């Protein structure tokens, strides 16, 4: 059994993933992409940063673009339940021998920065500025009508180790891919907020950010986005899909932003709040785990990802090869 | 401010609503309705009861029909996080002066039965038989493709009192309707699992069950159900909708089962996991709270509901009148 | 049998309905409604008129708004196959004793103006300015994403007489409602272009224009329009729906423009090109003919309509009452 | 200009494509595929043949499967307007030096069999048995909910010659792909019934049937079919898609039946009834003509097709290479 039992009494209470901070080498072009094509709402902007939220989010931001010379990611960020959870998180990371810092982040209260054992930078906060609801201001909806951030997916050089650490933090595995021969994990999906995942790990040169995903109402919105991107100069930014994942059962599309950061558009996964929710096992050789309908992912999807600032990724310890399009 | 602050350290951890037990005066006809027309999956049946689950549920049942001479409801039932939570729940109800019993329920572990201050019967359990996933067995999908139970809505003779009690249990208000004159609650929606509600209360002769709701993938499934019901002898069972609720922003349809038990088909509400998620206020005089598109609900929707076994409902303390179709 | 046999060798070849010219008492407000909310494309505008087309239309206009002091309609307009058909049409109308005039219309070639026996003004042309395709310029789509004009519906004081005349012109009945007692037609749907109708007649004070309909891709677009109208000040302009018609099997919504002109948003009817396509009979007492799902239409839907310029409507000869919401 | 002007006064009036007769080497397996998975309705069956119609069709059949030792096609079949058109068609084919035969076909009146200049077998009839409407018997809908046959697509060894012949018959070109260098046609789409096509030709070893297409309500039905096929043993029968065609703008999926006959599931093209409807030109080097979203078709899609009974196909005269997935 390659996945650890869920830790039902975790050291601190992570509510959900919150946001990601991405470098943009052409901030104006990237803003245009996320605002006009994807349809995220700009909540603040200055000369060097743009903040976005989804249509149903009341927290100030789920995505921050920062003007940068290289298109790296600063951190993947999470919201905890209470101020006490923030201090408990700090204690947990210190106890694991990880570096801990309290950092200043606009529009947020106290923010803890640390990293997982592979150096993947993570940030936790308790309080972020709250904004008035806009989910019923339908005149503002555009693009793919993104409702909220859904999850992160990161390359890990050792998925077993990543899952062990994140499970200790209270993340619960919902589905996983195993290499039958070695009994090693190829990939795993872990959640806090009651869907299939807040965070996933996939075997590869890492840590790198594989993608950030946004939740949309239904598959028709994804078709609308494809039509729009195909006829507004973004046809080359469509990487994979549309399709139904075997894992998660979600309807998906993968696109690349102007810097190559990968974005998943995602809907239709399922509820996982039960503490006794059983993880689903997939074999690495089953092509339907990737796409239920059988189409393999392109090679770029397995190889390309976003580096984290100042972090050299390590090659994976597991050499198994995924199924790719010829 | 008519809604209490959320209790972020509740006496016990309720994971989610779980199921409802309904009396069926013609068990075969009711089974046909839920199995063939709605599309719930039968997980067990004997001479006097039928158990159902939604397509993504792994717990044994979300609906139990029991052969009965009167079409009452036995209880609204909830799942708690751990066995310790079950004992803590028993202590809580005892502390509130409510009767507490441990009852035997098929396919479930220890089950606590109690009631809220108006006598609304509630049951809590920690462990239910788990079944293999069927959410990717698409040949089994039929009817409205119901994925899971979503919420209960009950008439309450005193919504302020109901909300106070359920808030103390850790349910958090997401939206509410207030009578501007009296500052009394007309209705409130409260959740545990991170959507708009697990439980709602609406002013009226109560306690009575107003409806149980099932989550479906998207509005097209609801249109499919309407077409099916309209042409298979169930056109008279369509009560209200389809439409978009102002409150919850969900796309909805209300139908009546062969005994008149009201079922809502529901999708597209929003995520509410943040502990600082602010409730949305609606005024009782705003017709768009009911249906964003303006159509009022029929009178039956305000007046009819399912009695609970052996419980005489009381008239509401709030006399304000809702907006109904002329 | 109340409907005449189709005339399979008509006196002239009408290709399809083409456009309607409507008076607008506040031209700017009406333009905003059709352009921004409905999403029709403006193809030309001057101080006193605005021309629109749907997203897949290449003819110059399907709707013309003209600044006016009263919100009347000028004519319902049709395209014929060839110039010879135009002359044949003139001969047909003359032969029926109807007035015939050749009128100047911007962006069109020779245009014939006449009227049916009740005085309903009709115009026919052969050539209209053609515009480049925009159906794949997805950045232009907005509102309900209207693709093309679909049909007209007019009140007639004598539906039997209207159907007889229009059948002689080559329009073919696809569905009809009969008053069982009198064997008189209550309403009929007639087509040229291969759908359920280009033109329909319904019993009532007439001739008046009941509505003009635009075809949209699918029901989700209609839901989007409802959400948009409900939250941008147009909730009072939603008159009936959404629903599925029994007659035509189409998914529909009826809205009113700022002058009260009724617009139907329509999709999902069926193909009727076969010359031996049999009309479908509905009884006037069947509520599902209006809405398959059972909801009756509001009284306004039976009583209100757009007058034609300079034409006094006559009361209907058939007194039968439709089914209306209480 | 590589496409001929439309013949607006054709020698006979073809209403629409009607049906195709396909050989099935395992009739039971093929019936199961079309009836249970696709959802066509069986209208008649005997030991050696099964007849199907779509949900809105009233003609007896749009597809005939005949037990066969080789999976060939018998003919592509069309409905003409009147008996006189049938005789005019016979005269036309004789005048073109093509063989003409009157054949017996079950459930049809007089049937003319001939072939185009490449030998592609065609059949025309005027009268087919008519069946009662079932489009509102929603309990019968299953699979992809196929409404009607939409078009044929055939490989032609000389698309210019095919288009010249079929244009003379009154088929009108709506879109075409041209090899810029040679000014030769690579492919063309021609219609009679007012959509993008009843018949298309694509360059290749031919005549062979490339595919037959069925119209479905909307893209969600195609997603449902993919989910169903993927989980009922048909994942290997999914060949290409889902996607949006550049040409036709339709949403599509290509699947293969148990004998490898290719079926397209198709929706969302546009109306083309105007006699002055201008054809749209595509360049052979534009990958978006195949799939607007950029994904190339697999090699099998360009190479594989169904042979016609007793007909040896010829290699194409145009050597240009299409764009294929690597």
Task: Characterize the structure shown.
The structure is a homotetramer of 326-residue chains. Chain A is an alpha+beta fold and 326 residues long. Chain A folds into two domains: 14-130, 2,3-Dihydroxybiphenyl 1,2-Dioxygenase, domain 1 (Roll), CATH 3.10.180.10; 145-307, 2,3-Dihydroxybiphenyl 1,2-Dioxygenase, domain 1, CATH 3.10.180. In chain A, 16% of the residues lie in helices and 34% in strands. The first copy, chain A, contains five helices and 18 strands. Chain A has helices at 27-38, 83-95, 159-168, 219-230, 299-303, and strands at residues 14-24, 41-46, 49-53, 63-67, 73-80, 101-103, 111-115, 121-125, 148-156, 172-179, 184-191, 199-203, 208-215, 238-244, 251-256, 262-267, 280-283, 306-307. In chain A, strands 9, 10, 11, 12, 13, 14, 15, 16, 17 and 18 form a ten-stranded mixed sheet that branches. In chain A, strands 2-3-4-1-5-8-7-6 form an eight-stranded mixed sheet, covered by helices on one side. In chain A, strand 7 and strand 8 (121-125) form a beta hairpin. The longest helix of chain A has 13 residues, at 83-95. In chain A, 59% of the residues are buried.
Tell me the span between the first and last alpha carbons of chain A: 32 Å
Tell me the name of the CATH homologous superfamily of the largest domain in chain A: 2,3-Dihydroxybiphenyl 1,2-Dioxygenase, domain 1
What ranges of chain A have pLDDT less than 50 throughout 5 or more consecutive residues?
A: none
Radius of gyration of chain A, in Å, reads 18 Å
CATH class of the largest domain in chain A: Alpha Beta
The CATH topology annotation of the largest domain in chain A reads as: 2,3-Dihydroxybiphenyl 1,2-Dioxygenase, domain 1
Strand content of chain A: 25-35%
Examine the secondary-structure arrangement and name the CATH architecture of the largest domain in chain A. Answer: Roll
Instruction: Please give the most extensive interface between any two protein chains, plus how many residues each contributes.
Output: A-B, 35 and 34 residues
Query: How many strands, what sense, and barrel or not for the largest sheet of chain A?
Result: 10 strands, mixed
């Amino acid at each position: 059994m390659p996945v650890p039992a869920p830790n039902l009494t975790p050291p601190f209470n992570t509510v959900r993933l919150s946001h990601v901070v991405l470098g943009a080498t052409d901030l104006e072009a990237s803003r245009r992409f996320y605002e006009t094509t994807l349809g995220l709402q700009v909540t603040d902007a200055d000369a060097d940063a743009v903040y976005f939220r989804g249509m149903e989010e009341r927290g100030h931001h789920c995505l921050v673009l920062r003007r940068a010379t290289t298109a790296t990611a600063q951190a993947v960020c999470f919201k905890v339940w209470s101020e006490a959870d923030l201090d408990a998180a700090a204690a947990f990371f210190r106890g694991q021998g990880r570096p801990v810092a309290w950092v200043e982040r606009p529009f947020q209260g106290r923010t803890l920065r640390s990293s997982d054992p592979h150096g993947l930078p993570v940030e936790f906060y308790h309080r972020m500025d709250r904004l008035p609801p806009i989910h019923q201001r339908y005149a503002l909806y555009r693009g793919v009508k993104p409702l909220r951030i859904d999850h992160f997916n990161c390359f890990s050089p050792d998925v077993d180790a990543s899952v062990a650490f994140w499970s200790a933090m209270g993340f619960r595995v919902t589905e996983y891919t195993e290499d039958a021969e070695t009994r090693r994990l190829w990939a795993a999906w872990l959640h806090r907020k009651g869907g299939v995942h807040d965070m996933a790990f996939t075997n590869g040169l890492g840590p790198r950010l594989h993608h950030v995903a946004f939740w949309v109402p239904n598959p028709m919105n994804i078709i609308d986005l494809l039509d729009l991107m195909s006829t507004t100069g973004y046809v080359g930014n469509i990487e994979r899909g549309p399709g139904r994942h075997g894992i998660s059962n979600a309807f998906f599309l993968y696109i690349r932003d102007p810097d190559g950061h990968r974005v998943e558009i995602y809907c239709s996964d399922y509820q996982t709040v039960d503490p006794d929710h059983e993880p689903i096992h997939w074999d690495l050789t089953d092509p339907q785990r990737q796409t239920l309908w059988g189409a393999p992912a392109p090679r770029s999807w397995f190889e390309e990802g976003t580096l984290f600032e100042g972090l050299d990724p390590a090659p994976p310890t597991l050499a198994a090869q995924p199924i790719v399009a010829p």
